[in-house]
């Protein structure tokens, strides 16, 4: 079969125009699939930024909450009830709100304000400048240096601003794992200061953050939370709930899926038509091989080798070009969002196999039907 594969490769690359068209079609399809799925992965990761960055094991919330920005304040008795539950090591409140920050230039910028428990500071970010103890100073805030950092005019330690007519001072600059989704900078302060600075409803606890005594206690804690009429989710379950919200209850998931399907169909049509035309033009050569003793199984293997060879080259070029674009985008575009993972690459690999299978099916049917007599007679 080695000799047959050499013949198949020579037949494939001999027509450089059709070979290039076949590669381009597959590359284009894989590029769109990887690019769009990576963008959607980035959106889902950024949508769960607060959950990932704070890192609490269990989140207690109102039953209607489906994403961190839609926090429904809970009464104080929920915190006391959770603290008294079996299996709870400790539980602390988290404040989450949006404030209109007045900068030194006079401009206004909406910002997310997260109020950490005064005693434990559970969920505090990793500081790259300043000391975490300074958060207890008067008017103290910690800013996150992420893609939105410049929107607050890239403040340094000691920079002042106003929040709801209150003076604020930057005492630390932090780094987090994931930046937010909606282009809003993030500020950390204490829970009590957040209540003092920002207008609030009657209830103020956005989430109760719980640390269980052990992993085995988690199901029991969730059941106890459910009995008092609230929802307890692990961090991974909360991230999944947020992802489901953006997949099925917003237009993002459906629109990206439609674009991926269009890209797949375009690549399939280009590669299928190009390879079918290639087989038609080389039908006499396949008939001649049949006339000198080549079996149908050998010809099928040749066609599968040709399609696989072109498909895997297209797959590599598509993944490589998409990865390059994502790397450049992340470096030079502040709000660019895309993450390549194993599932993106696996999805693209599966779809390139579908493209190769459909393209080879059209060609195999034509080659099997050709008769050496017809070729020799012609």
First-residue to last-residue Cα separation: 28 Å
Percentage of residues in helical conformation: 40-55%
Number of helices: 12
Extended strand count: 10
Question: How many separate domains make up the residues?
Answer: 2
Q: Which spans have pLDDT < 50 for at least 5 consecutive residues?
A: none
Q: Tell me the overall shape.
A: elongated
Please, could you describe this protein's structure?
The protein is 53% helix and 18% strand. The protein has helices spanning 2-14, 16-47, 49-54, 76-83, 191-197, 218-227, 235-248, 251-281, 283-291, 296-332, 342-369, 372-377; strands spanning 58-61, 88-102, 108-116, 126-130, 140-144, 160-163, 166-175, 186-190, 207-212, 231-234. A six-stranded mixed beta barrel has the order 2-3-8-5-7-6. With 378 residues, it is α+β, with helices and mostly antiparallel strands. The longest helix has 37 residues, at 296-332. The protein has two domains: 2-46 and 251-377, no CATH class; 75-229, no CATH class.
Secondary structure layout plus pairing:
Elements: H1 2-14, H2 16-47, H3 49-54, E1 58-61, H4 76-83, E2 88-102, E3 108-116, E4 126-130, E5 140-144, E6 160-163, E7 166-175, E8 186-190, H5 191-197, E9 207-212, H6 218-227, E10 231-234, H7 235-248, H8 251-281, H9 283-291, H10 296-332, H11 342-369, H12 372-377
Parallel strand pairs: 3-8, 5-7
Antiparallel strand pairs: 1-9, 1-10, 2-3, 2-6, 2-9, 4-7, 5-8, 6-7
